[in-house]
Design goal:
The chain has 149 residues and is an all-alpha fold. Helices cover 79% and strands 0% of the residues. The protein contains six helices and no strands. It is elongated, with a radius of gyration of 22 Å. The chain starts with a helix and ends in a 7-residue tail after the last helix.
């Protein structure tokens, strides 16, 4: 058993795909005593971070484009359709990734994500009269059919 774990740890360093295949096989067969727990835990934590970062990035892009769409009047005529298309694209991508856990994470992080979006839009547009707090509900941000007037 110890040599099996050592072999898996070595496999992780040299043949990641093979390590993953073997780990999945062990899990399916409920051979928990043979798992490489250290690397499995590291991979699961990394996967969680990656998924959170992906959905956070998509929500950030939705907010940026909604702010541009709603408030950048000087560019609206040339860019409104492009921004609307981007907003829908990001919403579709986000919908595909959302789980209950990730949805709750985004709802909690919304104020921070909005502040980052605000900073980006202010620097891009030089607009000074943008709302300090997010003017969109979480539901509106996710709704593929919703756009501000």
């Amino acid at each position: 058993m110890k040599s099996q774990i050592r072999d898996l740890k070595q496999l992780y360093e040299t043949e990641y795909d093979q390590w993953l295949t073997e780990t999945v096989k062990l899990l399916k067969n409920r051979q928990l005593e043979e798992l490489d727990y250290d690397n499995l835990i590291e991979e699961l934590e990394a996967l969680g971070r990656s998924e959170r970062n992906a959905v956070k990035s998509l929500l950030l892009q939705i907010i940026i484009h909604l702010l541009l769409y709603q408030f950048w009047e000087a560019e609206r005529g040339r860019n409104a359709n492009h921004w609307a298309g981007e907003i829908i694209t990001f919403r579709v991508q986000l919908e595909d990734k959302l789980t209950t856990n990730l949805r709750n994470y985004l709802a909690d992080e919304l104020p921070k994500i909005y502040q980052n979006a605000l900073l980006i839009v202010q620097n891009k547009t030089q607009l000074k009269s943008l709302p300090e707090q997010c003017p969109y509900s979480f539901g509106q941000l996710l709704d593929k059919d919703w756009f501000p007037n």
